Every structure is written in structure tokens, then in C-alpha cells.
Amino acid sequence: MTDPMIVYCGLNCSECPAFIAYQTDDDALRKETAKKWSTPDHPVSVEDINCMGCKSTEPPIHSFCSKCEVRSCAIEHEVETCTHCPEYSCEKLDKIIEMVGDEARNRLENIRKQLSKS
């Protein structure tokens, strides 16, 4: 079983400021993160910076994550991470990886290597 904080796309929720701010009830981190994540097309409020993690079935789940097509797809396919999916790697995942960085892809590749050894 994969670390539950490593989510479908390979991000580590325990390193996410929205998750950390919620867990520690840190309003300064919420404010800083909202400012950093906001764009003119997608404003993020301080109230948005609360999350129990992408794999959580309990609210709150950050609004970006709750609408994430990779998350929705992985839930639909009932996979632990995208690397567990027979369709790995797909366009949806590649699009997210482009945004979040290669560290997430590297995590998924490491999981895939471990799976192949099993």
C-alpha cells in the first residue's frame, strides 16, 4: 500500500500548504497561500485554504482538488494512484504534472518500480 498522503497525481498532501494550514489552523499560512495561488481567472480566498487531503472523503477538500479531473478519474477507476491505473500515463495526468512539477511524476515512477518488483 502506498503512503495515503501520496495522492493520485503523485503530490504529497502532507507538504501542501492548504493541508498544513487546515491541520495547524494557521491563518497566516492560509492568507499567504491564497495570495500565492490566486490568479485573475481563478481567485482564491483565505476561506478556500482548508483541506483534509485529496483522498479524503470528508470535507473540506480544497476547491481546486475537488474539481480536479485526475482525482475524479482515479476515483472512477478505483485506483490508489495514477500509476496503479492500466491507462497510466494519460493526458489528464500529464497536464497536471506540467503544472505541479516533475517531483510528482518521480514519486509515481518510484511507486511503479516498487509495483513491478512485487
Please tell me about this protein's structure:
- 49% of the residues lie in helices and 0% in strands.
- Helix 1 runs antiparallel to helix 2 (27-37).
- The chain has 118 residues and is mainly α.
- The chain has helices spanning 17-24, 27-37, 63-66, 69-77, 91-100, 102-117.
- It has a domain at 1-8 and 68-118.
Pick out its properties.
single chain; 118 residues
Largest sheet features: none
Please tell me what the overall shape is: globular
Give the beta-strand count.
0
Order of helices and strands: HHHHHH
N- to C-terminal distance: 11 Å
Mean pLDDT: 88
| Low-pLDDT ranges | none
Strand content: under 5%
Portion in helices: 40-55%
Radius of gyration: 15 Å
Which structural class should the secondary elements be placed in? mainly alpha
Counting H and I runs of at least 4 residues, what is the number of helices? 6
Which SSEs are present, and which pair or pack?
Layout: H1 17-24, H2 27-37, H3 63-66, H4 69-77, H5 91-100, H6 102-117
Helix pairs in contact: 1-2
Describe the structure concisely for a colleague.
By secondary structure, the chain is an all-alpha fold.
